[in-house]
Amino acid sequence: MTDMGEKRKALRRNRSFATLLLIFAAVIFVATRAVPEPGFYVQLIGTAAEAAIIGGLADWFAVTALFRHPLGIPIPHTALIPSRKDEIALSFGNFIRDRFLDPALLTSRLRRENRALELAEWLDSPSTANFLAERLVEFLPHLLNGTKDAEVQNFMRKLFQEGVRRADLAGTADQILQHYVEDGRHMDIVDALAATLKPSLRALKQPIIEKIGEQTGRFFPSYFDRKVGKGLLDGAQQWLEAVQDTESDDRRQLDEWIRERFAEFRVSPDYAALLKDAQKALVSNPALLHSLGATWDDIKRALLDDNASPAPRTGVVIAGIVRAAGRLLKDSPTMQVYLNQAIERVVVDYIAPWRVQIGSYIVDVVQSWDGPQIAETIELQVGSDLQYIRINGTVVGALIGSALFLLGAGFPLLFP
Fold this sequence. Notes:
Blueprint: H1 3-33, H2 40-67, H3 80-83, H4 85-100, H5 103-112, H6 115-123, H7 126-145, H8 149-166, H9 169-182, H10 186-203, H11 205-216, H12 222-243, H13 249-266, H14 269-284, H15 286-308, H16 313-330, H17 333-351, H18 355-368, H19 371-414
């Protein structure tokens, strides 16, 4: 049974009990009046029943008058909720505006708890992660199949082009290269090149000597060809080994030469033009732009294939990401502070300034409702508890009636 069904059932049950209690008091009252010569206890019970009827009827009238006219009679100041729904709506809207959306109150309430930590713990729970993963896995095919591939590919290309075009890649590249050289990491490239060239020189030693012989001509002795070639290759080999030695002068001189040439190149017009041309080439590169479209096709196909499998890995990955995000947030007090501040800014700076409009919206919505419908809705929510007012009125009335009867009976004895 739904929540509304349970409330309707509870309302009927409590209303019937209150009515039966009132009827029981009325039956007792009539029965005591039918006794020809009532004794003390019969009079006491009759007086209690009479007071119970009065209390029960009074509270029945009060409870009923909130929602409708008692017995359908248009008595003034009854059916308060449907007849005064506009005033109630205005009061409710103002209450929400002034007591719920007040900036100082919101700030105090938000700072009372660590909302970011609560969010982190919620995300790190298996039930939350699985729930979010399942919802996203269910929604993913609708999202992917509802998109037009050509438009998505075109959007990705334009997004990439605009991003690269607007980014200061030249300045960024210059800073990266500057820090790279200042930190001496350019020598790592030198070491890598030297390590690559040394075995290549050994493997190409004989072909190089033969090429040198071809250039010197047939009148130059071959002995000198081999001597010159071997000297050149041995010198190059020794120099490569020397520049790999961190303590050698050759390495220090090469390092200084690279730094000087880079400093000269940075201030030359060709350097800035080179970086700009590289940025333009990156934006308009057909192969790169085509690969973006192909990447989308591959991603979409892989996601759809995985989603159709009996145990989609996408759900496992999403659940892992959700829990990882929760753990990272839980283990990072700094991020919690940033997130709490962001939540506070969103609520206080963006929602609270609209509190007048929000209150007016609530007023307009409630005022547009049908009066009897509002009364029925509210009665369904709180009417079950209000029936206890009738029950208590009947019982308390009986007790008060008994007390007054006993007081009246004992008064002559106390004050003869």
